[in-house]
Amino acid sequence: MLFIGLTGSIATGKSTVSSILASPPHSLPIIDADIFARKVVEPGTSGYNAIVKYFGPTTPDLLVPVSDSMPVDGVDGKGRPLNRPALGRRVFGSSEERKKDRNVLNGIVHPAVRKEVYKAILRNYLSGAWAVVLDVPLLFESGWDRLSGVVMVVAVKDPEVQMQRLMARDPHLTREDAQNRVLSQTDVRLKAKRCEARGKGRGVVIWNDGSKEELRANVDAALADIRRSSPPWWNWMCLLCPPLGVAAGAWVYWQNIRTNKRWREMELEEKAKL
After folding, report:
1. pLDDT in tens, 5-44
2. Residue 199 in 3-state DSSP?
3. Which residues contact 44 (CB under 8 A, 6 or more apart)?
4. Closest CA to 181 of 84, 273, 91
């Protein structure tokens, strides 16, 4: 089974590309880390309890306000849901304090999400899917690129396009809030460069500065190339012969380890020139 690692940055169109891949004629199963990230912090979960314990004392509005429809202990008695805008203000930004809080939050959420992703991968493998899309915003940062036969980055060339789309999508954000959210993530143009460094057939950049029609055409063309390089019959062979599947997976992992090593060396060389 081919793993297609899908990533991007906030407001670059990753979710739109995910929807295109999930729809006919592609109809690929999507493992969406964002959905799992919300699931693992629902009231009553260990993730929710850890977040409330750490952020609650210093974030008075961490939980949604009490109202006629929202009791003090939540609708099911497990607690009120997290107030995501308030939590976002605690973790998004470039200051050392914000980075520390963001690392704490990631340390709570990421292990739980990883467990859910592994279970979803197993379900899709057993169902015989020829490919599965790992929709992960922090694909490189969390190491999921090491398992991906192909990495697809959805990017925009103009940072202002990203800002305008974000504020249009989330009208409650001020320009400063939007900028903090963009700056809290790795620059998407750097992600695109890293994706291209994987080489032809293993890294695909989808530029999304144009219309939705142009975006769909770019995605369709990219997936056609991926199908040619990793046809469904090969993935059926890996499914029917598990040792072959394990060997193929190990080969992909080893290649990606080498690619990441070269990328780190390139980064060090670039820093040395400064």
Report:
1. 999 999 999 999 999 999 999 999 999 998 999 999 999 9
2. coil
3. 76, 78, 79
4. 91
